[in-house]
Structures are given as C-alpha cells and as structure tokens.
C-alpha cells in the first residue's frame, strides 16, 4: 500500500455504520469509505453549501425549515455542476484501490454518496439559520 493510501485510511478514521458478513459490496464501500469521508469533510460541505446558497438562492435564509430542507435536496439532486463538485470533494480522499472499486459501480455508489450527504446537510439545517451573506 502506498504512503498516500495508508495516510488517507488513517486520516479518515474507522468504519462508520454496520458491517457484517451479510453486507453487500456497496454497503461495505459506503460504511468503510464514504461515511468516514463525509464525516471528515463535514465542515467543508457546510461551507460549500453556504457559498452555493449565497450565490444561487439569495432568499434561502428567509425560507421555512421545510423549504430549506427541500432546497438542500433539490440543489444536490438537480444541479449537476454542484453535485459533481461535491462528488469531487469525496473522491479526492479515495485510495487508488477504492477508486477502482468505485468505478465498477459508480452509478449506485453516487446515489448512496449523495443521499448520505443530503441527509447529513438536512440534519444540520440549523447551521443555515443565522448565516449572513
């Protein structure tokens, strides 16, 4: 294993979520790779989303909580450039081996990745209450 791969795995930390003998390959990848990266990059994702809404959703801070939650989901699901930027933030912390695993089933893994990120941002919607432009 290269120094980079060793560093990344140690830097990201432990597996998050349940891993068992019955876990699918995608579930293993999600819990061993994606979840630790999302946790590590959480502050960056918050900053990126704040920048996104400041540039693209001028009235976001006046939305109801319900509308903010819907905006988080729609922004990630429908804005392809934004979604690709978020994927890049995650993929930059893949090891080469993880990347090779990812490209074999990128469509399903992208869905998992974005759904986890949407859930993560939604669970922190209160951080988008008092932000100013």
TrEMBL record:
Q: What species is given as this protein's source? A: Flavobacterium limi
According to UniProt, the name of this protein is Glyoxalase
């Amino acid at each position: 294993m290269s120094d980079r791969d060793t560093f990344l795995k140690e830097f990201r930390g432990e597996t998050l979520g349940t891993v068992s003998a019955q876990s699918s390959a995608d579930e293993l990848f999600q819990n061993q790779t994606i979840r630790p990266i999302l946790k590590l990059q959480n502050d960056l994702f918050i900053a990126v989303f704040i920048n996104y809404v400041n540039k693209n959703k001028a009235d976001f801070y006046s939305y109801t909580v319900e509308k903010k939650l819907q905006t988080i989901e729609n922004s990630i699901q429908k804005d392809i450039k934004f979604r690709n930027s978020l994927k890049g933030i995650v993929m930059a912390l893949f090891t080469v081996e993880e990347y090779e695993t990812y490209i074999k089933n990128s469509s399903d893994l992208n869905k998992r990745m974005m759904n986890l990120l949407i859930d993560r941002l939604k669970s922190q919607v209160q951080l988008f209450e008092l932000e100013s432009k």
